Amino acid sequence: MVIALVAVTFVNVLFNAIESVANFMKADWGKANSHAVNVPDSWLPLLGLVKGAAAVGLAVGLFWRPLGIAAGVGLVVFFVLATGLHIRHRVYHNFYGPLVFLALSVAVLWLMIAARHGSGRRDLAVPPTWWVSLWS
């Protein structure tokens, strides 16, 4: 379970960090996606801040589970709304984007909540020696 948690969290942190930087830089592909669903350019830095904060929250959440769970909930809500915007505006050519992010967010949230270690009890954090279990 710990391996899956670390792997899915790493992928989610990486993808959201890339999206965050792209939003702050107002990358052309990010602006095109936001224009397709009528999100103004002025919102891009705020969206970048939300995604960046969630990425940091997930990374720290490996060691302090409540923060990871909160970040996971925030991402699920964010990408449910993004998926809803795509449906509302009938933008299906890039619909896979928010769906992939939503699936990753649901997976990391579930793993953050369900992860157990050692005795089978639920812990608030990955144990400090979580990396040892990778080779056990």
UniProtKB/TrEMBL annotation:
It holds the Pfam family DoxX_2. GO terms for cellular component: membrane. Its main location: membrane. It is found in: Membrane. The keyword Transmembrane helix applies. The keyword Membrane applies. It comes from the Bacteria. InterPro entries: DoxX. The chain crosses the membrane at residues 69-89, 95-115. Keywords: Membrane, Transmembrane, Transmembrane helix. It is a multi-pass membrane protein. This is DoxX-like protein. It comes from Glycomyces algeriensis. The lineage of its organism: Bacteria, Bacillati, Actinomycetota, Actinomycetes, Glycomycetales.
